[in-house]
């Protein structure tokens, strides 16, 4: 296993899949000559040429629509959003066409399309560039939604997404691109979509988190261990379809849950997770499910306000202590 | 530093070959064989008769809402008839005649407008996209198909349809821009039928023609008499041949008129003048093409009856189709059925086995006894 950054892991996934399958091509703004705004497509133009690494006019709806058309003719496009916030410009193409064409054509057309790019809070990117865009997409039947937390996941999940016959929304993070981790060299290393992972085993409380929030939850878990609270950490990795089985399994073991998400809490991922836990494992709960979420406000530009808007390790610590002190055990 | 005029200066052509009185410009007449002319004429008659039958079916409650084509037969058939089966046709939602030409069985189109998923299912290997209801979103797909065709080394041409209203959408601009930049083989066919529901063209754009918009994208644009099937054919032939030869996209504006409703859900007498409709009825594409066919002695006796019988048989097959199986609701949502949908499908199957889904206004069934507060059933 090699140690590499999250960015390099994504680049390797793209490179390996493009070598393996001539139908795979990359399309988006600045993906070619400029090597991508965040350098995820570094060197791809040089290796694969302009036919397969396509710089486009500035137009998310246009190149997403082109990707859909090309996918219908049997290619496997990987569309890059410079940031996932820009995908709002392509919302109709994603929701009304990519997600529905297979269904509405009675299975005659598939849209094996990956739309990838960074999203979520970063460092002073302000209200319009810091949104947790997964919340807009996991509501849509027909889409798969992936959020990879580690370099290994970034590679294994992106490769699976490219090989998947459905449209996949694949949201990375600006704050994780530089993160280093172990990544298998095997060109056929895949992580199946729809599989959660238990990142840390524990017995007292389950914390569900992904992306940057997973790292804060890990910090909190180490701290809580000192207090004698054993935290089990579950990372869903794929938000739709979600591996509810792994989460429920953990709840049945610990009987207490805290869900952490970076975005605004109202109708967020935490709400959905709390709902299915209530439906499927109500009698296993010893305390109400707690959510730690971002404030229900646009992301402020000011550094101090930005810090306050996003869940902190302290907030996670407090929530875990609250559920562990609740009556019922 | 004088103010100068840049070259090249642009101009937009207008093409008309067979006018509303049936006068022919013989020098421009496309070279179509008698068989090709007969096929085109038959498709126009079928398009008109089917449209009229579909409106009646809808009024009788036997078909859902749809967008009739009456008056636009020449625009659709003159253009689509220049394609090969290996080319791609990308419809909007008003291309019934063009779709029949491309081989869609009539009953399939009826099934589509009655809500059957099979209706939107192109035949195996058929190179047509399904009907696109959101306005103009199909146009970037057409560019994607053309890009993919080139990528795969095929010589396919893509023909994409849209209306005058769609030209205001961002997706229309985006598709034309991409097609121009990439020089891909797409023929954009705008059926300018003058009205986008109740909004007339002059409120849609301040541009004198739609065709001239092509020039800004660096591609040829031509305006044709969209009720003149020969002019539409000639313009489309030129554009398709040029696209196939690697010479890039074209925008064709067919100036036509929707003689009927926008869809069966609106009443045009509320928003447009009767005299305007009467004026356009004088320019009916069928009248002039019938005169042309008569002059060539190519009219066939009994054609209308033949066509009506074909439609009647299709309506019979359509009405004999059993209602869709409710369990197909989850088919084709994903390439494979994810666990949460397997569970929902099983739940629906169970409800159907236990006497069907409840009627929407039936009283709610008495809930089964549930534990009261404080009486929680604990499994552990």
List keywords for this structure.
heterodimer, A: alpha/beta, Rossmann fold, seven-stranded mixed β-sheet, five-stranded mixed β-sheet, B: alpha/beta, 2 domains, two-stranded antiparallel ribbon, 39% helix, disordered C terminus
Low-confidence blocks of residues of chain B: 369-378
User: CATH-wise, what's the superfamily of the largest domain in chain B?
Assistant: Thiamin diphosphate (ThDP)-binding fold, Pyr/PP domains
The helix count of chain A comes to 12
* Class based on secondary structure composition and strand pairing of chain A: alpha/beta
CATH class of the largest domain in chain B: Alpha Beta
- The parts of chain A where pLDDT drops under 50 for at least 5 residues are none
Strand-and-helix sequence of chain A, N→C? Answer: EHEHEHEHHEHEHEEEEHEEHEHEHH
The CATH architecture of the largest domain in chain B can be given as: 3-Layer(aba) Sandwich
Q: Write down the CATH topology of the largest domain in chain A.
A: Rossmann fold
CATH topology of the largest domain in chain B: Rossmann fold
- Gap between N and C termini of chain A, in Å? 43 Å
Largest sheet of chain A: 7 strands, mixed
Largest interface: A-B, 48 and 46 residues
Describe this protein's structure.
The complex is a heterodimer of chains A (329) and B (380). Chain A is α/β, with parallel strands linked by helices and 329 residues long. Chain A has two domains: 2-183, Rossmann fold, CATH 3.40.50; 197-324, Rossmann fold (3-Layer(aba) Sandwich). Chain A contains twelve helices and 14 strands. In chain A, strands 3-2-4-5-7-6-12 form a seven-stranded mixed sheet, with helices on both faces. In chain A, strands 9-11-10-13-14 form a five-stranded mixed sheet, with helices on both faces. In chain A, α1 packs parallel to α7, α8 packs across α12 (313-325) and α9 packs across α10 (269-281). Chain A starts with a strand and ends with a helix. The model of chain A has no long low-confidence stretch (mean pLDDT 96). With 380 residues, chain B is α/β, with parallel strands linked by helices. Chain B folds into two domains: 13-320, Thiamin diphosphate (ThDP)-binding fold, Pyr/PP domains (Rossmann fold), CATH 3.40.50.970; 325-357, no CATH class. Chain B has helices at 34-59, 73-80, 96-101, 106-113, 138-151, 170-182, 201-204, 213-216, 229-244, 274-281, 285-295, 303-319, 339-353, and strands at residues 13-15, 88-90, 158-163, 186-192, 195-196, 199-200, 221-225, 250-255. In chain B, α6 links the parallel β3 and β4 (186-192). In chain B, α1 (34-59) packs antiparallel against α11 (285-295), α4 crosses α12 and α5 (138-151) runs parallel beside α6 (170-182). Chains A and B meet through α3, α4 and α5 of A and α5, α6 and α13 of B.
């Amino acid at each position: 296993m090699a140690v590499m950054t999250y960015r390099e892991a994504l680049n390797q996934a793209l490179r390996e899949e493009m070598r393996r399958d001539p139908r795979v091509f990359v399309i988006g703004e600045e993906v070619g000559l400029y090597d991508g705004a965040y350098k995820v497509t570094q060197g791809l133009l040089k290796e694969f040429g302009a036919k397969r690494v396509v710089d486009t006019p500035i137009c998310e709806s246009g190149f997403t629509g082109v990707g859909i058309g090309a996918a219908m003719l049997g290619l496997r496009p990987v569309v890059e959003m410079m940031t996932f916030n820009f995908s709002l410009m392509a919302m109709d193409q994603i929701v009304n066409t990519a997600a529905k064409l297979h269904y509405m054509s009675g299975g005659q057309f598939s849209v094996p399309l990956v739309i990838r790019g960074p999203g979520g809070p970063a460092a002073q990117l302000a209200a319009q560039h810091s949104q947790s865009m997964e919340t807009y997409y996991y509501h849509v039947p027909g889409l798969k939604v992936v959020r990879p937390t580690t370099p290994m996941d970034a590679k294994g999940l992106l490769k699976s997404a490219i090989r998947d016959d459905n449209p996949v929304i694949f949201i990375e993070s600006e704050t994780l691109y530089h993160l280093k981790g172990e990544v298998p060299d095997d060109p056929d290393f895949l992580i199946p979509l729809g599989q959660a992972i238990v990142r840390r085993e524990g017995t007292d409380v389950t914390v569900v988190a992904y992306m940057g929030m997973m790292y804060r939850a890990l910090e909190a878990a180490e701290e809580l261990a000192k207090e004698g609270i054993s935290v089990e950490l579950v990372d869903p990795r794929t938000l739709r379809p979600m591996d509810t089985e792994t989460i429920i399994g953990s709840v049945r073991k610990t009987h207490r849950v805290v869900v952490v998400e970076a975005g605004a809490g109202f109708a967020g991922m935490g709400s959905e997770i709390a709902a299915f836990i209530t439906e499927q494992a109500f009698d296993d709960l010893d305390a109400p499910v707690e959510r730690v979420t971002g404030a229900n406000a646009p992301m402020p530009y000011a550094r101090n306000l930005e810090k306050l808007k996003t869940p902190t390790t302290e907030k996670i610590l407090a929530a875990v202590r609250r559920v562990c002190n609740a009556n019922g055990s | 530093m004088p103010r100068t005029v840049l070259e090249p200066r642009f101009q937009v052509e207008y093409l008309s070959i067979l006018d509303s009185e049936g006068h022919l410009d013989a020098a421009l007449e496309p070279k179509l064989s008698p068989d090709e002319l007969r096929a085109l004429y038959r498709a126009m008659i079928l398009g008109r008769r089917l449209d009229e039958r579909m409106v009646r079916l809808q009024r009788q409650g036997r078909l859902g809402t749809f967008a009739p084509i009456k008056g636009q037969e020449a625009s659709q058939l003159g253009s689509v008839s220049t394609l090969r089966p290996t080319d791609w046709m990308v419809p909007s939602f008003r291309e019934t005649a063009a779709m029949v030409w491309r081989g869609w069985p009539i009953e399939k189109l009826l099934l589509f407008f009655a809500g059957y998923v099979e209706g939107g299912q192109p035949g195996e290997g058929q190179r047509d996209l399904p009907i696109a209801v959101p306005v103009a979103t199909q146009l970037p797909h057409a560019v994607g198909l053309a890009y993919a065709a080139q990528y795969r080394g095929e010589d396919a041409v893509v023909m994409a349809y849209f209306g005058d209203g769609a030209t205001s959408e961002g997706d229309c601009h985006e598709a034309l821009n991409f097609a121009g930049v990439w020089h891909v083989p797409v023929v954009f066919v705008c059926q300018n039928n003058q009205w986008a529901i109740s909004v007339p063209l002059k409120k849609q754009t301040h541009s004198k023609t739609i065709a001239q918009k092509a020039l800004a994208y660096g591609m040829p644009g031509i305006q044709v008499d969209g009720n003149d099937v020969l002019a539409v054919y000639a313009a489309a032939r030129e554009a398709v041949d040029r696209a196939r030869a690697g010479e890039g996209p074209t925008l064709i504006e067919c100036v036509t008129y929707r003689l009927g409703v926008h869809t069966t859900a609106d009443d045009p007498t509320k928003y447009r003048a009767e005299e305007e409709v009467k004026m356009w009825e004088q320019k009916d594409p069928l009248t002039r093409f019938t005169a042309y066919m008569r002059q060539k002695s190519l009219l066939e006796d009994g054609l209308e009856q033949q066509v009506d019988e074909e439609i009647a048989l299709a309506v019979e097959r359509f009405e004999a189709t059993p209602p869709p199986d409710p369990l197909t609701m989850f088919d084709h949502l994903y390439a494979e059925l994810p666990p949460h949908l397997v569970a929902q499908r099983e739940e629906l199957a169970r409800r159907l086995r236990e006497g069907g889904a409840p009627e929407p206004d039936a009283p709610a069934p008495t809930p089964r006894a549930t534990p009261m507060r404080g009486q929680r059933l604990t499994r552990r």
